[in-house]
Known about the structure:
The protein contains three helices and ten strands; from the N terminus they run H-E-E-E-E-E-E-E-E-H-E-E-H. It has 192 residues and is of the alpha+beta class. The protein has a domain at 64-183: Lipocalin (Beta Barrel). Strands 1, 2, 3, 4, 5, 6, 7 and 8 form an eight-stranded antiparallel beta sheet that branches. Strands 9-10 form a two-stranded antiparallel ribbon. A hairpin with a 4-residue loop joins strand 5 and strand 6. The chain is globular, with a radius of gyration of 22 Å. It starts with a helix and ends in a 9-residue tail after the last helix.
Amino acid sequence: MFNLLKYSSIILTMLVTIGPALANRQPFFDDPESPHPYLDTESPQWKEATAIKLPAYPEPANLVEFFVDIPNPRFRYFIDSRSLTINPDDRAIRYTLVMQSVSGGANNVTYEGLRCDANKYKIYAYGNSLQNFSRLNNPQWQHIKRTSPYPQHRELREILFCDSNLGYEPKAVAAIISSLKNSHRITGTSLF
């Protein structure tokens, strides 16, 4: 009986001590929708470069395939290596993304930006059937969520484009291209 009373008082003391802290806790790191201070650090003084020039439409010879680690992928993913830039003023990585359907070869082409530090992406333009870009009116930066239906942005940020050892700074363009080339899987399907 003495041991039961002793342990009950210890448990009660622990609950009283840590209970309020647990009730007001921050979301766990693995909570798919929670912002995390180390993964989503919006800088209040950040300002986007003003003149975003659209690149030339991608050519198959310049596309580098990369692997997105998801079960039963519906797309193959490619980055146009010639469109890949890092703006020195705003540190955003801009690139052309090509998503090819594994079932029918249909392509989705977008010109996008990715901010390593803020965990965000932006689509500036969509490719069209005339093989040129149609610019979006007033595109907005979107958070990259762990449960997003667009897993390529998470893969690009967490593994291929950004250096997590340096506080999520962009890698150099040559290092990004090397990361892309080392991530792809070899397939026998043709592009375009």
